Amino acid sequence: MYFTDRGIEELENRRGEEEITLGELAELLRTFVDLNPDFEVPVERLATWLARLDDEDDE
User: What is the DSSP string of 8-34?
Assistant: First the structure.
């Protein structure tokens, strides 16, 4: 188990039943990066990965 799995599990346990739009998620990611600029690159990579999930060229 990766260290990050703990946070993912907490997110799922606490808020797993909630629904948000991708626009809301994007705004939350922007706020997170504003508060934690050291995480700009990983958040950018995650956002790009999520945006391109259905791209056949990346497979």
Answer: HHHHHHHHTT----HHHHHHHHHHHHH
Residue 20 to residues 1, 17, 25, 59, Cα–Cα distance (Å)? 27, 10, 7, 27
Distance in angstroms (rounded) separating the CA atoms of residues 41 and 57 = 22
Residue 48: exposure state from Cβ atoms within 10 A (0-12, 13-18, ≥19): exposed
Kindly report, residue by residue over 6-54, the tens digit of the pLDDT: 988 999 999 999 999 999 999 999 999 999 999 999 999 999 999 999 9
Residues 26 and 46 sit within 8 Å (Cβ to Cβ): no
